[in-house]
């Protein structure tokens, strides 16, 4: 029997299954993100219960030209190209310690703090200005 014909190791297979299961059970990181136009300095600030998913979705939508929420961002993406944008995690919200606690309100507060700090409105960004 050659080394390529060796039987699969049960320990390795079960360990891999355990790791996959642990990954599936672990909630994705949630928090506040920024999409920065490096050419103009404009920024989009947002939040998500799934940061990697949100950033991947935005990048995909911009790349395919189907980003509808922020038309000015889509126009700048088409004008400057992907190399002139960065996708950043600004803040990560720790998962709630108690089961059944909804983190959405805490996430809204965290996003509001970043909006206040960066003021991504008008010429400075892509977010809609707050009413008032």
TrEMBL record:
InterPro entries: GIY-YIG_endonuc_sf. SUPFAM superfamilies: GIY-YIG endonuclease (SSF82771). Residues 15-26 have a biased composition (Basic and acidic residues). CDD domains: GIY-YIG_LuxR_like. Residues 1-12 have a biased composition (Polar residues). Residues 1-26 are annotated as: Disordered. This is LuxR family transcriptional regulator.
């Amino acid at each position: 029997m050659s080394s390529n014909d060796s039987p699969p190791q049960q320990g390795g297979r079960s360990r891999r299954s355990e790791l996959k299961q642990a990954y599936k059970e672990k909630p994705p990181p949630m928090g506040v993100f920024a999409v920065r136009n490096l050419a103009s300095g404009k920024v989009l600030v947002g939040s998500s219960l799934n940061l990697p998913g949100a950033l991947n979705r935005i990048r995909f939508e911009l790349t395919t030209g189907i980003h509808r929420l922020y038309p000015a961002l889509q126009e700048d993406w088409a004008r400057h190209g992907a190399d002139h944008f960065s996708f950043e995690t600004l803040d990560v919200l720790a998962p709630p310690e108690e089961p059944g606690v909804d983190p959405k309100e805490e996430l809204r507060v965290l996003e509001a703090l970043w909006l206040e700090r960066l003021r991504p409105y008008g010429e400075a960004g892509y977010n809609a200005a707050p009413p008032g």
